[in-house]
């Protein structure tokens, strides 16, 4: 219960202050002239001014409110190392019992830091702010953090807390913890395919005498290098970038004896491979309607550097026309097919026949170029069925189908084969979902005999139309019709020529996302999608390895033809691995090297400066044997320091809420009348003397 006095002036404030000024002046004049009865007259003036000020006595009925303390329990993954979880639960039980003994204290427990696959690092102060969001600052007695000390959202200043009370940190873990970790110094984000990038790193030993470490460097799971390094030394590691897209590099150090965990013995870098330019050589044997289709496609791709030659006059068609009036440039056969052939990622022969332009030895070079990793596409017309077919060259050893010498001249619709419905080059082509396909007719097909390779499209009587083949380290494509330009021109509605030609050329140039057999991990929001591309009828289970080392088996279900999928919750940040026994896949969820696992030894040093600034403390709760011993907890009403050698304190508050108010006006009604009349009567009586 509280008492007080309030004023509710009957006139504006400036009138009240004017009346006070006049009353003070008159009272001073009475004193100055030594008037008899000046005190009675001054009292009467004061009564009149008070009557205008309208004072009231108030009585408040107050109910005291409890002080609030928040206990934030760290449940981050690093708390799982050693016996920290047991220590945390023991300390939590003791805290609940001791805090419950303090009268007028409301205790709020909250767990924070659980791995959710999105948040990087341990964020205890965010949980603290959320817990006390509905509590006025004058009710907060303090906060207690039960953690291993590795907290990543410590405010830069105490004022950011929003309350003036101590923050205490009770640290789990042992003083003698040992750990080895790999620290990345410089990490490139991008690299040109075919070139190298340098990663700089060092190995650190914490809590132990530094000993030499064996470091293994892997790229996409393949071991690149092993070396012995001295902890503390900065090491440069050159990494070759073999393909476009993510190149995942792992740097793993051997463990030390009695190490806390090996999770941070490995650091991960994802380098996105970027192709400088894809060099493509297009050789057209003669001008024809489909020539511009290939040229337009390749010129429209900014990543392609196209070299295109059209043979306007083969040697057998000499007519005496001067060369300088006939050709734009001579065909540099020796330079292209002997000196610089390996500079090209793809060579396309468009309706090309043996015409004496390319010596036979150059076809030998092309066959060897494919075997060593190059790519050749033959877009065939009647030339392929003729006696001058390029089949009748050393290319015979790499081409997947032998011409029979006949061509089919009749309208037909290209069809996807069973293999074509699964193959990434032709799967899901627009128009293929109906039967017959919703695209235009073609009118010519080169007949071939059965050969090697995979037929993904066929024509009349199931004759091969598009055949794909792997030869050595390279690839070959054979399109047995020169009428794809009808799709490009929109004849009968056209067809998906752009998709087909682009996928075909990229498959030939070994684009990773067009592989027939592939295992992929894809992050979709909070889920991890496992995708298996295959030409087979079934797939096996996939084993997932989480960043923490836990394994999980996932059974895939069939999706569209050639694709099998599964999905799991991406519950941890870091590098995930997948394998089905044949193929492997890696992907990062969130940052490559989560802060939670960067430093895992427990420490008081991180939180001590902030806790001390609030008047609190940061101290360990375990002795050398690992036994949990908490300090005494005291409730204090005043003071700036809330810690001692064996105790910590909370700032108990005197907050209350008003339940009722009583008001007694002094100059209202009979009481006010009596006061004023009494003052005037006293003045009159004094004057009467």
Structural notes for this entry:
The protein is an alpha/beta fold and 689 residues long. Helix content is 21%, strand content 33%. The chain is built from 14 helices and 36 strands. The strands form 9 sheets. The protein has an 8-stranded mixed beta sheet with strand order 16-15-17-18-24-23-22-20. It has a 5-stranded parallel beta sheet with strand order 4-3-5-6-33, sandwiched between helices. Strand 25 and strand 26 form a beta hairpin. The longest helix has 20 residues, at 13-32. The protein is elongated, with a radius of gyration of 43 Å.
Ends distance: 47 Å
> Using only CA atoms, what is the Rg?
43 Å
Average of per-residue pLDDT values: 86
Residue share in β-strands = 25-35%
Biggest sheet details = 8 strands, mixed
In short:
Helices cover 21% and strands 33% of the residues. It contains 14 helices and 36 strands.
Top keywords for this entry?
single chain, 689 residues, alpha/beta, eight-stranded mixed β-sheet, five-stranded parallel β-sheet, 14 helices, 21% helix, 33% strand, elongated
Topology summary:
Elements: E1 2-7, H1 13-32, H2 38-53, E2 55-64, E3 67-74, H3 84-100, E4 105-112, H4 124-131, E5 140-147, E6 167-171, E7 179-186, E8 190-192, E9 196-206, E10 213-219, E11 222-229, E12 235-240, E13 245-253, E14 266-274, E15 278-284, H5 291-300, E16 304-310, H6 323-326, H7 333-339, E17 346-350, H8 360-371, E18 375-379, H9 382-385, E19 402-408, E20 415-416, H10 418-422, E21 445-449, E22 454-458, E23 464-471, E24 474-479, H11 485-488, H12 497-508, E25 518-524, E26 527-533, E27 542-545, E28 551-554, E29 557-558, E30 563-569, E31 574-579, E32 584-589, H13 608-613, E33 618-620, E34 632-636, E35 647-651, E36 656-665, H14 669-688
């Amino acid at each position: 219960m509280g008492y007080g006095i309030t004023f509710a002036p009957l006139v504006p404030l400036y009138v009240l202050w004017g009346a006070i000024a006049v009353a003070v002046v008159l009272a001073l004049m009475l004193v100055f002239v030594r008037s008899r009865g000046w005190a009675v007259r001054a009292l009467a003036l004061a009564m009149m001014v008070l009557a205008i000020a309208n004072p009231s006595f108030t009585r408040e009925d107050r109910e005291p409110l409890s002080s609030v303390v928040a206990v934030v329990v760290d449940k981050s993954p690093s708390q799982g190392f050693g016996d920290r979880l047991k220590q945390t639960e023991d300390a939590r039980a003791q805290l609940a019992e001791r805090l419950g003994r303090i009268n007028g204290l409301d205790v709020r427990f909250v767990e924070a830091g659980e791995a959710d696959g999105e948040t990087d690092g341990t964020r205890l102060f965010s949980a603290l702010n959320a817990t006390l969001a509905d509590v006025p600052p004058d009710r907060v007695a303090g906060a207690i953090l039960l953690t291993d000390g590795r907290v990543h959202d410590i405010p830069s200043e105490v004022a950011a807390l929003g309350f003036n009370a101590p923050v205490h940190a009770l640290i789990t873990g042992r003083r003698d913890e040992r750990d080895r970790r790999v620290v990345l110094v410089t990490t490139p984000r991008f690299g040109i395919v075919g070139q190298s990038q340098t990663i700089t790193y060092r190995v650190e030993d914490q809590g132990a005498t530094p000993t030499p470490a064996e470091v293994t460097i892997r790229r996409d799971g393949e071991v690149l290098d092993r070396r012995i390094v001295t902890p503390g030394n900065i090491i440069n590691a050159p990494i070759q970038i073999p393909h476009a897209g993510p190149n995942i590099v792992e740097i793993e150090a051997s463990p030390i004896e009695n190490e806390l965990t090996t999770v941070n013995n490995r650091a991960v870098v994802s380098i996105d491979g970027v192709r400088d330019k894809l060099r493509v050589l297009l050789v057209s044997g003669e001008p024809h309607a489909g020539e511009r289709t290939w040229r337009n496609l390749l010129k429209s791709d900014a990543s392609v550097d196209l070299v295109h030659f059209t043979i306007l006059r083969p040697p057998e068609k000499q007519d005496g026309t001067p060369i300088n009036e006939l050709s734009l440039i001579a065909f540099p056969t020796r330079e292209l097919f002997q000196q610089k052939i390996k500079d090209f990622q793809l060579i396309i022969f468009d309706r090309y026949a043996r015409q004496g332009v390319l010596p036979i030895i150059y076809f030998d070079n092309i066959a060897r170029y494919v075997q060593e990793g190059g790519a050749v596409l033959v877009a065939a017309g009647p030339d392929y069925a003729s006696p001058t077919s390029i089949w009748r060259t050393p290319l015979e050893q790499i081409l997947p189908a032998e011409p029979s010498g006949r061509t089919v001249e009749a309208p037909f619709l290209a069809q996807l084969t069973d293999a074509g419905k699964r193959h990434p080059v032709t799967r899901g082509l627009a128009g293929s979902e109906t039967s017959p396909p919703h695209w235009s007719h073609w009118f010519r097909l080169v007949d071939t005999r059965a050969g090697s390779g995979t037929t993904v499209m066929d024509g009349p009587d199931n004759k091969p139309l598009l055949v794909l083949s792997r030869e050595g380290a390279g690839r070959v494509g054979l399109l047995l019709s020169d009428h794809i330009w009808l799709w490009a021109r929109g004849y009968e509605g056209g067809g998906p020529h752009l998709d087909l030609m682009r996928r075909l050329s990229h498959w030939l140039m070994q684009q990773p996302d067009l592989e027939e057999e592939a295992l992929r991990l894809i992050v979709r929001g909070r889920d991890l999608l496992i995708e298996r591309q295959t030409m087979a009828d079934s797939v096996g289970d996939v084993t997932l390895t989480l960043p923490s080392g836990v394994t999980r088996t996932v059974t895939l279900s069939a999706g569209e033809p050639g694709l099998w999928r599964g999905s799991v919750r991406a519950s941890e940040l870091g590098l995930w691995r997948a394998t089905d026994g044949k193929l492997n896949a890696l992907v990062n969820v969130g940052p490559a090297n989560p802060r939670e696992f960067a430093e895992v030894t427990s420490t008081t040093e991180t939180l001590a400066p902030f806790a001390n600034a609030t008047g609190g403390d940061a101290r360990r709760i375990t002795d050398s044997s690992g036994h949990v011993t908490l300090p005494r907890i005291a409730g204090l009403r005043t003071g700036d320091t809330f810690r001692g050698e064996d105790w910590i304190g909370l700032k108990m508050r005197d907050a209350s809420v008003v339940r009722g108010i009583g008001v007694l006006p002094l100059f209202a009604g009979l009481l006010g009348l009596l006061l004023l009349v009494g003052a005037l009567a006293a003045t009159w009586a004094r004057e009467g003397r």
